[in-house]
Amino acid sequence: MGCCLSKQTTDTSQNVARNASQREIAWKTTGIVGLRDARLTSLPAKIFSADVAPKCRNVDASNNKIASLPPSIGTLVNLQRLTLTVNALATLPDELAQCVNLRVLVLDRNAISRVPDCVLASLTKLQTLSLAHNKLAAMPSVASLAKLEKLSVAGNALTSLPDGAGRCVSLEELDAGDNPIDVIDASLGALTRLRVLNMERTRVSAVPPEVFEGCVSLVTMSLHGCPVDADAIEETSGFKAYAARVRDKHGKKIHGGAMVGSRGLDDGVDRATAGRNIAPHR
Question: What residue stretches are annotated with the Disease resistance R13L4/SHOC-2-like LRR domain (predicted)?
């Protein structure tokens, strides 16, 4: 009996070691580190070893309980995608700034309350930055992110849009819904590629004419749940051109066989059934 148990224990240990070895070989061969739903409280140290770190291109450790990133995250100098959604991160280390080849950084649904200035200042190749549903009350400037195409800061505690957003000249999608933001910066009017602007359930009460006039690609804007006056929005300079783009977008879908919902074409604002003011969207 004792011999059988000893053999089983030895076989199990050997299998674990073999699987770990095969996993590490795969990391080095493919550059992809997949660790979703692995019950981790930290990233494995092996990722940062001299033989693995330079090979890492894509790390996904979502749905774990990782509370912090080690300073050695800076050794992943060739990393292009880092996804750590649904973890327990509260802050980010300065060393993340050394991952200068990052294109995609997705950190949704953590508890992040601070992003170091140096991180966003250094990650100039970012195309997607998503920090939705964290605890951010402030953001560092994103002015250096000229290649950024998608930015999500929805579901935080921000009182203003990230500084420098109007200088993200490649930006196509901006989601800042579910924040206590009360102003849309007129500087966003410089974003000629912006297609989607979501400000749902914020405190925004108006849209600057610069946005309607300058964001010539804008076809989806949502102000549902905001204290806006639909009539005032419609009278804003540039709104008619925006509304025409919305109709054209949906018209193509209609001609292509798509269905239109019971609300008709959605131009992004709630309309009260009575009175001029817009009722909160629920």
Answer: 96-202
Q: Is residue 195 a part of any domain in this protein? A: yes
Residue 262 lies in a domain: no
Residue 188 class from Cβ within 10 Å (0-12 exposed, 13-18 middle, 19+ buried)?
A: buried
Does the residue 272 lie in any domain? no
* Cα end-to-end span (Å), the chain: 66
Could you tell me the residue range of the domain that residue 72 belongs to?
31-255
Q: How many domains does the chain have?
A: 1
pTM given for the model: 0.86
Does residue 234 lie within any of the structural domains? yes
How many Cβ atoms are within 10 Å of 242's Cβ, its own excluded? 22
φ, ψ at 59 (rounded to 5°): -120, 125
Taking only the tens place, the pLDDT of each residue in 17-60 is 456 678 888 999 999 999 999 999 999 999 999 999 999 999 99
